[in-house]
Amino acid sequence: MALGLGIDPPEATCDDENCPFHGTLSVRGATVDGVVASTNMHRSAIVEREYDVAVPKYDRHMKRRSRVPAHAPECLDIEEGRTVRIAETRPLSKTKSHVVVTTLETTRQLASDQVTEPATDASEAATGDVSENAATERGPGESGPETAGENA
After folding, report:
1. What is the CATH code for 27-109?
2. Is 45 exposed, middle or buried (0-12, 13-18, 19+ CB in 10 A)?
3. Cα(45)–Cα(110) distance, rounded to whole angstroms?
4. What's this model's pTM, rounded to 2 decimal places?
5. Least confident of 46-60, 63-77, 135-149
6. Domain ranges of the chain
7. DSSP 3-state assignment of 54?
């Protein structure tokens, strides 16, 4: 099932009634990307995500995290530390109302718009504020131009 998410069903099959691909579970509402923090429960996973919250008093942001229990179908290979996408569904238990729909391979597949390409040496030299000559003029341990009165 999992219609409307644009996700291909996994190759493995399962007989789980609460699987969005091979069972009768329908998904609705929001999808959230996060990292699997725990898989100790049977057919369940704890998905953790970090987000920023504005603190107006200090004009700063602070990091918060939320931990969402989600149903983990057997047809998906879910391990701790993997990045997954979960979708909202009807309540499956007292705490679970989300289901894991896919695993994400890289950070580029995350929904965040702030993921950038890693910098290369050539791009750092072209856009950096320190030239190669300035780094080679000083020896190790020398921090910058010395004044006449310091070493006299």
Report:
1. 2.40.50.1000
2. buried
3. 19
4. 0.65
5. 135-149
6. 27-109
7. strand
